[in-house]
Specification:
Strand order of the largest sheet: 7-6-5-4-3-2-1-8
CATH architecture of the largest domain: Alpha-Beta Barrel
Enzyme class: hydrolase
CATH superfamily of the largest domain: Aldolase class I
Structural class: alpha/beta
Organism: Paenibacillus mesotrionivorans
Order of helices and strands: EHHHEHEHEHEHEHEHEHHEEEEEEEEEE
Number of helices: 11
Bound molecules: alpha-D-galactopyranose
Keywords: Glycosidase, Hydrolase
Distance between the termini: 40 Å
Protein name: Glycoside hydrolase family 27 protein
EC number: 3.2.1.-
């Protein structure tokens, strides 16, 4: 096996065209994103997949029933795009759908699963996002994801399978068995605080359903978009504050979601880059054991609403990643008693805390730690047990 890392071992990291560009995608854009991955440190930080979402094909298959890339958007064809991305040491992703059509009305892969998988392999793709629109009602989504999974696993190429059924139809109960490497657990994200907050809260009770080879995908990141989508649905105006983007990235990192950038990284500012490339947060997200995070309510528990909580992720080396999240609209003190981590006073250990955003040591604490966190903000620490 040598250095071979199996597909889906860790949450995928990459970029996806949908949030910002929706239908307005073309070859040159994808090349520029690939260039930027290399020149601006994204590749170095761990981002790997460049994914073209919906709207890449013609509206009809060819006479042989094959999908055809839109020649106006991709004049050189998909193989050339794949070759370019591969020449940069990156991986290439595309999009299709379980139904007769994609969500934007392009041909879907229903009853063409094995044919399309073969075509994707020919083009040299490494990742397939598989959506849930226009699904014939007489057949279960579970079976259709199993079909494409089997087709991809037998197409002669390693292709990471990214299921996207928005958490519908009890997906938690069957997706791991289907063979998918990641699965969308939520409806579409929008570039505003309410959306980020509600997606995160919706998955707090679902952390037992994420882990290696089948990661809970909370949707693409909106970090750095600032209302820059071309779609009103996703949020053409508004956007979030940098604090909110930082909290969003922290939640997705700790909760083990794949990290798929959704902004136009050709126009990123230094803060966007700092957020998306924070090495400590990425290390937490990419931790080998890929455990879900558990939630602790701050003390005194009766005092706090459900949007104020700590998330704790047990890391492979024995450290704990701890996020203090204040999603409420006013400042809060979040008191963490270490016994809630399984660390009673009598054990004789203290915690040495490193602030992952400020990149500084906070000191050594025994029994409890109670930071004050501003509205919509968070503190993420890496905690080490010390005597
Ligand atoms: C669905 C998905 C989105 C995106 C669009 C494309 O809404 O959830 O992520 O892929 O379809 O049409």
């Amino acid at each position: 096996m040598g250095n071979y890392e199996p597909l889906g071992l860790k949450p995928a990291m990459g970029w996806n065209s949908w949030n910002t560009f929706t239908w307005d995608i073309h070859e040159q854009l994808i090349r520029e994103v690939a260039d930027r991955f290399v020149s601006e440190g994204y590749k170095e930080a761990g981002y790997e997949y460049i994914v073209i979402d919906d709207c890449w094909s013609l509206k009809e298959r060819d006479a042989g029933g094959n999908l055809v890339a839109d020649p106006a958007k991709f004049p050189g064809g998909m193989k050339a795009v794949a070759d370019y991305i591969h020449s940069k040491g990156l991986k290439f992703g595309m999009y299709s759908c379980v139904g007769t059509h994609t969500c934007a009305g392009y041909p879907g892969s229903f009853e063409h699963e094995f044919q399309d998988a073969a075509r994707f392999a020919e083009w040299g793709i490494d990742f397939l996002k598989y959506d849930y629109c226009f699904k014939p009602r007489h057949i279960s989504g579970e079976l259709l994801y199993k079909r494409m999974s089997l087709a991809l696993k037998n197409c002669g190429r390693d292709i990471l399978f990214s299921a996207c059924n928005w958490g519908e139809d009890g997906v938690y109960n069957w997706i791991r068995e289907s063979g998918a490497h990641m699965y969308r657990s939520t409806g579409d994200i929008r570039d505003n605080w309410e959306s980020v907050k509600s997606l995160a809260l919706s998955q707090l009770g679902k952390q037992c359903y994420t882990g290696s080879f089948c990661h809970n995908d909370m949707d693409m990141l909106v970090v750095g978009m600032y209302g820059g989508s071309n779609s009103d649905f996703i949020g053409r105006i508004g956007g979030c504050s940098d604090t909110q983007y930082k909290t969003h990235f922290s939640l997705w990192s700790l909760m083990g979601s794949p990290l798929m950038i959704g902004c136009d990284i050709r126009k990123d500012n230094p803060i966007t880059k700092q957020i998306l490339q924070n090495p400590h947060l990425i290390a937490i997200n990419q931790d080998l054991e890929a455990r879900g995070a558990y939630r602790i309510k701050p003390e005194p528990q009766w005092f706090h609403t459900d949007d104020v909580f700590m998330l704790v992720k047990v890391l492979t080396d024995g450290d704990l990643a701890i996020g203090f999240f204040n999603l409420s609209d006013s400042q809060r003190e979040l008191s963490l008693q270490f016994w809630d981590l399984g660390l009673p006073y009598a054990a004789g250990f203290s915690l040495s805390l490193f602030d992952c955003w400020a990149e500084q040591e906070l000191g050594v604490f025994r029994e409890r730690y109670a930071p004050v966190v501003a509205a919509h903000d968070c503190l993420v620490v890496r905690a080490k047990l010390v005597r």
